[in-house]
Design goal:
Blueprint: H1 5-8, E1 11-18, E2 26-33, E3 45-48, H2 51-56, H3 60-70, E4 77-81, H4 88-92, H5 99-117, E5 127-132, H6 134-145, E6 152-156, H7 162-169, E7 178-184, E8 190-191, E9 197-198, H8 200-213, E10 218-223, H9 229-243
Parallel strand pairs: 3-4, 3-5, 5-6, 6-7, 7-10
Antiparallel strand pairs: 1-2, 2-4, 8-9
Helix pairs in contact: 3-9
């Protein structure tokens, strides 16, 4: 099936945001602007961890064009936050030695940078944090760190290892936090690069149970799929449409 040419006319800008928290002092971003973008309007915004992967392997800009043009979804902006894979676990995992710095960068430097430059809405319900694997984990931890800023998390096969589960368990009331969670049924013995072999289905079931007990509203599904972008890319349209309203 050929891809409609309209989906391929994407506007993606490159940005660099300076940081006093990050080790290297800056971070590269990709910013997708929707069809008909007008800086006099205001837009919901999706913040993606692993920005390069979301754009290259997830094809999120093409997907966004399609659901905006064909499904009547309200136009929205996407901010992809790149990561140096060498330090990904250190930044994304809650027990990583760069985690706290990354969390503060995101809430205190990245968000103000985007909001000063682009017409994104400032209310938490118009911001979505999206991530795959550990990217889903850090998205949840960002919301827990800044509940006044973020209350919507899109988690693709989240890597909810022991420390993350402990942090969720320590919360009392999560009724303010809305999640979209999927995991692949073939993710029962996935070998991570630095944390051994894990059953992601069980990890997500445990996270779901803890979130449920704390009254967090969420969509949860286990689907045929492996721990890879071939699975997540197909799930992105439905996941985005869960949070971005149709006009």
């Amino acid at each position: 099936m050929m891809t409609d040419e309209r989906y391929l006319k994407r506007t993606v800008l490159r940005e660099t945001v300076a940081s006093n928290y990050l080790h290297d002092g800056e971070r590269s971003l990709r910013v997708y602007l929707p069809p008909g973008y007008n800086e006099l309007l205001s837009y919901p915004v999706v913040y993606c961890q692993d920005g390069e992967d979301f754009f290259n392997f997830g094809r999120i800009a093409t997907t966004a064009n399609r659901i905006i043009l064909d499904e009547g979804v309200e136009p929205f902006i996407i901010v992809g936050v790149d990561v140096n894979k060498t330090f990904r676990t250190a930044e994304y995992a809650p027990d990583g030695d760069r985690h706290e710095a990354y969390v503060r960068f995101f809430g205190e430097e990245l968000l103000p940078f985007i909001e000063a430059k682009y017409p994104v809405r400032r209310e938490a319900e118009h911001r979505v944090l999206a991530g795959d694997s550990l990217g889903g984990t850090i998205s949840l931890h960002l919301a827990l760190a800044y509940p006044e800023l973020f209350n919507r998390v899109l988690s693709l096969s989240g890597a909810y290892f022991e420390r993350s589960l402990e942090i969720i368990a320590a919360q009392n009331d999560l009724s303010w936090l809305e999640l979209y969670m999927i995991v692949g049924l073939q993710e029962t013995a996935y070998e991570t690069t630095d944390r051994g072999v894990h059953n992601f289905v069980e990890l997500n079931r445990e996270a779901k149970k803890l979130l449920e007990e704390r009254q967090a509203p969420f969509y949860y599904a286990e689907k045929e799929g492996q721990h890879q972008w071939g699975f997540w890319q197909k799930e992105l349209p439905e996941a985005l449409m869960y949070f971005i309203e149709r006009q």
